[in-house]
Amino acid sequence: MSLITQPRYLTENDMQRIHAASLEILSKKGIVFESAAARDVFVKNGAKADGNIIYIPSELVERSLKQLPQTFKLTAVNPDRSVVVGEGLAIHPAGGEVFVRTHAGERREGTLKDYSDLQKIYQYCDNIDMTGYQPVTPQDVPDRLNGLLCAREAFVYTDKPWLAPMAYVGRKEKAEILHLYDIVFGADFVRNNYVTWNVVCPESPLRYCEYACESIMVFSEYNQPTVLVSAPMSGISSPIFPLSTILLSNAETLAGICLSQLVSPGVPVLPSASLTFANMKTASWECACPDTALMLAGAIQMYKEFYHLPARAQTGVTSSKCIDYQAGFETMQSLLLTALMGVNVTSQSAGTLENLLTVSLEKTVIDDEVIARVRRLAGGFDTSDESLALDAIFEVEHGRDYLTHDTTLDHFSEGFRESISDWNTFEQWSAKPDREITDRAHQKVCEILEEAQPLLGRDEIKAIDDYIASV
User: Fold this and answer.
1) What was the pLDDT predicted at 127?
2) Residues in Cβ contact with 428 at an 8 Å cutoff, skipping those fewer than 6 apart
3) What is the pLDDT of residue 93?
C-alpha cells in the first residue's frame, strides 16, 4: 500500500509557468550545441541556428515530449534482475567520485580494484538494483581503456542491469563500450532492447559540449536511453532562487530530449534532478543542504506530474567526510524526501561522502539498510479488513497478549529486519568485538569480497578481454 498523497511543492499554475518559461528560453535565448552534427539535425527539423546557438521552436519541444515512453525495461543478463524504469523505486550506484575512504580512515585515489570491489558489493546488496556506472574513476589504468575496463568488471561480477561507465570520451570510444553489450547480448538483441543508458550532463547555463551531444546521438542511434543530468548551482551557474534554478534545469533537459528524439524518435529519456544549492560562504556547492533537497523535489514533481515521465534524482548524499552522525542524517534527509516525491531512480544513493568526491565500501553496506528503511516508509502499510484485525481484538481477553495468536504467527516475519544496525540489548552489544557500525560494515565488506565469484561465462569473459586487447 503506497502513500495516499505525496508532498507537493509546486502548484499546477507553478508547473505551467515553468514549462512556458522553458519554451520561451529555448525559442528566444536559445541553447549552445557545440557539435556541428547536432546543429545540423536541429536545423533540418525546423530549428534556427546562429553560430553554435540553436533556437528550438515550441512545437518541436511539444512533439518530442509526446514521443517519450512513460516506462521502459532495463534488461539484465539475468532476466530476473531486470528493472522497469517508471514503476516503483530503483537504486543505482554512486557516480563521479574520485577518492576512496578506507576503513582505516585513509582518503586516496581510486583504483580498478576499488571499482571491481564496489561491483561485488552492489551485487550482494539487495536494495541496489543496478551496477556499473562510475562509483569511482580508477587512476591506475590508461584513460583510453578506463571505460572498457570498468565495464568489464561490472559484467564479470554482477548480473543486475549494467550501466555504462561515465567516461568522458568521444563517439568512437562510446561505441566501443556499447560493443561489449553486443558481445554478451548479441547486436540484434541490443538494438531491440534497452540494456544500458548513457548519462549526459549539460554545462549550465544552457550549453551542451561536443562530448555531451555525441553521447546523446550515439546512444540514441543504438536505441539506448539517455539520462539527462542538468546540474545547475543556484547563484553560481543558475540564478540564486530555487524556482529559477528548477526552470533553468528544465529548459536544458527539454533541449536534450529534443536532440534524442530527432535522432531516434521514441527512444527513452530519463530526466534527472541534480540541482544543488550554492554555499556562498565558501563559493562551493552543497549536495546535502535542505535547499538542495527542496529543489530536487520540485524538479521531480515537474517530471512526474507535468510531463508524466519517469524521474531520476541525485539523492542519498552527504557533505560529511566520514561515516558519522552527519552522514547518516543527511543521507536519510535527501533519500527519504525524493522517495516520498515518487522518484523512480536514484543516483549517488549508496556509499558516497564529501559532496560526491569520495566513496566508501563500508558506507555502501550501511546505506543498503538505509534504502531498505526508506522503501518501507514510502510503501506505507496495509489497510485491508484483514489488517484491521477486529476479530482478533474480540478474541483475546482483556489484559492478555497476542504473542501466540494466529495473526501473529502468520505474519510475524513480515516486519522490517535490520541488516547492519544493532538491535541487541546493551549487554549483548557490549560483548561484541564490532560494536561500532563501521566495524560491522567492514566485516561484512570483507565477507562479500572473499566470497565473490565471476558470474559471466568463460567464453564471454574471453571475448571481452580479446576485444579490449584489440583496442
Assistant:
1) 96
2) none
3) 85
What is the predicted pLDDT for the residue at 137? 92
What per-residue confidence (pLDDT) applies to 445? 98
Classify strands 284-286 and 72-74 as parallel, antiparallel or unpaired.
unpaired
CB 199 within 8 A of CB 229: yes
In angstroms, the CA 252 to CA 23 distance is: 10
Low-confidence ranges of the chain (pLDDT < 50): none
CA dihedral (400, 403, 409, 413) positive or negative:
positive
CB 273 within 8 A of CB 248: no
Give me the pLDDT at residue 168, please.
64
What DSSP string runs through 393-455?
HHHSPTT---TTSHHHHHHGGGS---SSS--S-HHHHHT-S--SHHHHHHHHHHHHHHH----
Please spell the DSSP secondary structure of 21-86, one letter per residue.
HHHHIIIII-EEE--HHHHHHHHHTT-EEETTEEE--HHHHHHHHHHS-S-EEE--SSGGG-EEET
Q: β-strands 31-33, 207-208: how paired?
A: parallel
pLDDT digits (tens, 9 = 90+) for 29-51: 999 999 999 999 999 999 999 99
Pairing mode of beta strands 131-132, 162-163? parallel
Nearest to 77 by CA among 449, 460, 453, 368: 460
pLDDT of residue 463: 97
One-letter amino acid at 392 equals: A
- The HSE-up count of residue 108 (CA atoms within 13 Å, CB side) is 12
Query: Measured between alpha carbons, how far is 264 from 224 in angstroms, rounded to an integer?
Result: 9
Q: How far apart are CA 147 and CA 130, in angstroms?
A: 17
- Closest Cα partner for 75 from 218, 225, 201? 225
